[in-house]
Structures are given as structure tokens and as C-alpha cells.
Amino acid sequence: MPQTTDHPVLHAEGLTKRYGRRAALTDCDLHIPQGRVIGLVGPNGAGKSTLLQLATGLIEPTSGTLRVLGSSPAANAAHLARVGFVAQDTPVYASFSVADHLRMGARLNPSWDPALAQRRIRQVGLDPRQQAGRLSGGQRAQLALTIAAAKRPELLIFDEPAAALDPLARDGFLQSLLEFVTELGASALLSSHLLGDVERVCDHLIVLADSRVELAGEVSELLAAHRRVIAPRGDLDRRPAGIDVIAVEHTHTQSRAVVRLDRPHPDLPWTVEPIGLEELVLGYLTRAAAGEGSR
């Protein structure tokens, strides 16, 4: 059943988390409406897991504010029930059977949907009697996803859930994720290094680098605002106003750049082409690595 609350999925202002002198997350501002499948991408150490841990209430910010579904993360038992979390490596209890996991989920979650859990277990071919420790990686991921979804949350959070899966198992996991989001009317936040997975399932994007938000927004709008430009080398130095060069590569005769435009169809004297999500993300990560990102 679709959720009816009007609060954004995530709303952060100046969100910062430090460990001593090390900044894990710095001055993050985010506003993400409900009903989105959000891709959270960035290199190791960028702050992705920190943001997810803050969103689930596992840690508290050093400064700034974060609201999840309109409340402080893990504010109370009722709020905990509104969020489902699948941690990295999709942990399950090796000595518990599949049925044991479902019984535990029913005891711990007042809004548990036993019919949904049983149906999904059957659909993915899990034997209720089998110990979780004997399941394949893909089966463990499906079990963890089923447990998170059967509590009927408004937000599902995933921390690199499919990174260790083979392509077929990853495809099955992503398909199940989309089916749960549709059935529950939920939002989802997916942290992943796999840009192909993000491009397949996500309609909103957050790019983190060096603890800061480099880019955030609706995928369709971000792609519409960026282009690949190919120009004679040196020409981009004399570009008109309203064109922000995000990243550029040079050959002996040409410059190839990812640019952000202040209007959809500028009249430019160069080759202008649409770009994909992977090229967009890599452009911003390249800029950040060069020390020219959001500062």
C-alpha cells in the first residue's frame, strides 16, 4: 500500500560527521522527495557508509541536522519500523534456518507481513528448512531483502548489497528490489560502486567525494543539464558564459569535456552530445580528485 506522509525521505542541512580530525562527512545539504530510488555513489572513503549509518541512527552527527521521513533517525520504535536496512554483505544468521529468520522478523516487527514474506521466499526458491549458512550469496541477499521488506517500511536502505554477487544473482536482487519498491509504495536508498546497477534502477542520484556532496538531483534532470563537448584544443578556454567545465581530457588536437549548461540547447560551435550516467559521475569524481570539487 502506498505511503501517505508528505515528509521528504531525507533532509540534511550542514550534516557533518568527524572522527577526531578526520572528516567522514562535511556540510552536506540534501532534500530528497518520497517515491524515489536513490543511488548513492562515490569512491571508498567518500562518506557513503557514514551517511547510511547516520540515516539509520547507528551513529549521530557531529553537527548539522538530518531528518529521515520527517523525524530524527531511529527516534523511537515506531520510526524504526518505517525503515528497512540491508547492511553490507547482506548479513544473516548462519545457524538459523530460513523459517527461523521469518519467525524472528515477525517477533521483532509489529507491522510484519507474513503473507508477503512467505510469497517472496517461494518466488525466489528458498527452502524454509535450509540453514542460512548453506545458502549461496544470491540466496542470502534475497533472504535479507525479504526480511527488510516484510516489515513494510516506507524507506529501504541498502549498503553495497550486491557488490559480491555474480551477475545473474545481482540481476535477480535488483529485480526484487524494484518489485518491493513498487509493491510497498516505498522509497529506496542504494549505495553502490556499480554504476550500471545505479543506472538501471535509480531515478535520483547523490555523488559523494572526499566527504562532500558533489552532485545531487533527479537523474533525468542531471542528464539534461550536462553534455559531452568535443572542441579544438584550446577553444574551451574561450567558452561563452553559462558553461561550466566539469572534467576535460586533451589529445594533441582536441579537448573532450563534460560540461554543465545553464540552458538546455545552447548554440555552440562545437560537437555537443548527450552523456550517460557513468560519464556524468566519473566527470564529477575526476573534478573532486583534482581538488576542484565542492569546497
Automatic annotation (TrEMBL):
CDD domains: ABC_DR_subfamily_A
InterPro entries on file: AAA+_ATPase (IPR003593), ABC_transporter-like_ATP-bd (IPR003439), ABC_Transporter_VariousFunc (IPR051782), P-loop_NTPase (IPR027417)
Keywords: ATP-binding, Nucleotide-binding, Transport
Name of the protein described by the UniProt record: ABC-2 type transport system ATP-binding protein
PANTHER family given in the database record: ABC TRANSPORTER ATP-BINDING PROTEIN ALBC-RELATED (PTHR42939:SF1)
Keyword ATP-binding in record: yes
SMART domains: AAA
Organism (species): Allocatelliglobosispora scoriae
Molecular functions (GO terms): ATP binding; ATP hydrolysis activity
Pfam family, one: ABC_tran
Domain ABC transporter: 10-235
Superkingdom of the source species: Bacteria
